[in-house]
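Let us work through a complete example step by step.
Step 1: write down the sequence.
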Amino acid sequence: MEDMYVKPGNQERGWNDPPQFSYGLQIAHGPQRNLLNKRPPPALTSAGPPPGAVATPPPPHLGQMRTKREAAISQSESEPEVENVMSVLNGALAACRRAVKAQVCNDVAKRLHLMEDSWRSGRLSLPVRRRMDTLSAELQKGHWDAADDIHRSLMVDHVTEVSQWMVGVKRLIAETRNLSPELLEPFQKVRGRVEDSADPVQEPVKEPGELQDSLQLVQKEEEPDSAEPVQNPVSES
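Step 2: predict the structure and record it as tokens.
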């Protein structure tokens, strides 16, 4: 849930600038509304706990709990590979070149090159790399709305990192969505063929009884056929 967080306000404007909610929190909770005609509740006064009562410690801050949970998730998840992401994006671009204008495809290719260069040079943060890995997976599965939603979340939460090349990813999603099934089929099967070829083919393990029967069958096939002895008929006395 690394897309669920609250960023601090713009410190250049003032100390009381409101915080900025991530794209995930905005979608989950909806727009914030200020009810100006609602009277605030009266302040509660407390004389403190009664004599002899045991004071309970305050609960941990919600932000600290979220930070620890996000740190645990970050450590458990593997680092996304730029080769896997680029292979999917370039595969989608190759499919688009058969139906989309060359000028559009060349511009998308230039944007993808900028993204790859930023990734390899270490200018992309881990949340951006992980979301791009998820976006490429959704794109290859044909989940256009999910891929487009990830694109919007990156533009909202990490616009400084992605502004130079995200317009190319957006155009790639839109053009790939409009391709015919015949053009999409080779692109969507690329990752499946790679994963299938990586798995070694294993022979089924035979039980000891089946193994012994197989050895006996092999030995019987290797023995030369022996002619059956001819028996003289028994003459009746």
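Step 3: interpret the result. The chain has a mean pLDDT of 74.
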